[in-house]
Amino acid sequence: MDWAGREVTSVSLEDRIQQVNQKIEDACQRSNRAREEVNVIAVTKYVSLETTGAVLQHGLEHIGENRWQDAQAKWEAFGQQGTWHFIGHLQTNKVKDVIGKFRYIHSLDRLSLAKELDKKAAALGIQVETFLQVNISGEESKYGLQPEQAKPFLREISSFSNLKVVGLMTMAPHEENPELTRPVFRGLRELRDDLNGQALTSEPITQLSMGMSNDFEVAIEEGATWVRLGSILVGKEEGSRWA
Ligand SMILES: *Cc1c(COP(=O)(O)O)cnc(C)c1O
């Protein structure tokens, strides 16, 4: 319940979209960034097929899911609408399911996965766009390359002609005070700039996928170009796997 005794869960999708937009605008203003630099991925893993459809109808164009098993029905219903982002850990044997369906893979974290993505993309005659997932915080529970592995990794995959690295991705630890996540997001930005200074890729790495419901404002202030928003934007529904 909120202060007026209303069910907080009854806040409409439209209201949540508007509130999030305002927060993004404010964060851009605080950090002197153009609003157009920040893209929103609506993470629908906590919500139903119906709500995913409503999200697209409300004009949110980018959809994020973290498991193919949960995404499949939604993708089959709405895959031709919007742009799909695979944001979760990706098992090599699941590449065949997601390739060609998800335009972006945000979780490239090992050579075996890069090889499989490149191979399956080549078979389809497409380029798969990826984000290198980097474990900036150093938490053992987090996936991702160690920051110092990024350079050798980019060299190793530089000949993979059907795989393109467009950005870096990270997840910050959950903090009660989001300000404490700032060094993680700043670290990812500095790593990107450092990698670009060494010209390891044919084109500069421009994108930063960082910031979730709890910490996206700080991530934007530190340069996020994609924020991945679930609970704050599309909500969480009873009965979904994560509720
Ligand atoms: C679930 C998830 C999100 C969104 O989480 P919220 O905290 O609900 O915004 C973002 N990124 C990844 C990788 C996720 O798995």
UniProtKB/TrEMBL annotation:
Annotated coiled-coil segments of the chain: 10-37
Sequence positions bearing N6-(pyridoxal phosphate)lysine: K45
InterPro entries, A to Z: Ala_racemase_N, PLP-binding_barrel, PyrdxlP_homeostasis
Pfam families: Ala_racemase_N
Gene3D superfamilies cross-referenced by the UniProt entry: Alanine racemase
Record keywords: Coiled coil, Pyridoxal phosphate
Domain (Alanine racemase N-terminal) ranges: 32-236
Source species, domain of life: Bacteria
Main function: Pyridoxal 5'-phosphate (PLP)-binding protein, which is involved in PLP homeostasis.
Family membership noted in the UniProt record: Belongs to the pyridoxal phosphate-binding protein YggS/PROSC family.
Protein's name according to its UniProt entry: Pyridoxal phosphate homeostasis protein
Organism listed in the record: Paenibacillus tundrae
